[in-house]
Structure formats: C-alpha cells, structure tokens
Specification:
- The protein is an alpha+beta fold and 131 residues long.
- The protein has one domain: Ribosomal Protein S5, domain 2.
- A 5-stranded mixed sheet has the order 1-2-5-3-4.
- Strand 1 and strand 2 form a beta hairpin.
Length: 131
C-alpha cells in the first residue's frame, strides 16, 4: 500500500478551526467532504479561502481536503485560508515571502470579548439615571 504524500496546516479564525491537507498533485478542492463551491457558495467566502493559492500561483497545481468546525461561513473561510497558507509553507518554505507580504500567515486574533460580572454583556451597563 502506497502512502499519499500530503502537507498539513492548522488554521484558526474567531471560533472556527480548519485542518487542511494539501496534496502536491492536481485534484479536487474539498471542504468537509463537499466541493468548495458548495461549502462556500458566496464568491467572497470562496475567494477568501483560496487567497493563498492565488497569491502563490498554485491554484490548479494542488488539491486539498479541509475539515472545518465551529464559527460561521465567513470565519470558516478565514480558517481554511490560514490552514492552506501554513500547508503551503510546509510544502515549499520559499513561499514564506509572498504569504507574509499578503498577511496570510498571521492568525487573526480578534475574538469575542468575554462577559464581565455586574454587566449585561462585555461592556453594556445598566442605564444610568441621574434623578
């Protein structure tokens, strides 16, 4: 039995986590077992997910399988993008320059702020009444 060679990357965005396996051969782009067009029907989500492949000019040259959990479709697309960028870096370390220039290797650290005690939400207070 021949083991397939793949490169792995873990991507995160908000509460979404994507495990990406990148194969160095042309093939399908699958997200959670579905084609990319079905997993991300909006053009913005699709282009956000495939941004590392377009920046490095490897769009038709490799296939990928991604498992994504948590978050909504926008954060899932961002997590897939981050995972693809890390997998491309494992595939070819020379791609670090263009990926870094476009900010694709940086984890987007913006997450929901936690609720504070005595408040209704993270910052929402009860209305102040002067009289």
């Amino acid at each position: 039995m021949v083991q397939q060679q793949y490169y792995q990357g873990l991507g995160k965005r908000k509460t979404a986590i994507a495990q990406v396996r990148l194969h160095a051969r042309p093939g399908p782009l699958l997200v959670n077992g579905k084609p990319l067009e079905i997993a991300f029907p909006a053009l913005a989500w699709k282009s956000a997910a495939l941004r590392p492949l377009t920046v490095t000019d490897t769009l038709g040259k490799c296939s990928l399988e991604a498992k994504v959990v948590g978050g909504g479709p926008s954060s899932q697309a961002g997590a897939v993008s981050h995972g693809i960028a890390r997998a491309l870096l494992a595939l070819d370390p020379n791609l670090k320059g263009p990926l870094r220039q476009h900010g694709l290797l940086t984890r987007d650290a913006r997450i929901k702020e936690s609720k504070k005690y005595g408040l209704k939400r993270a910052r929402k207070r009860q209305q102040y009444s002067k009289r």
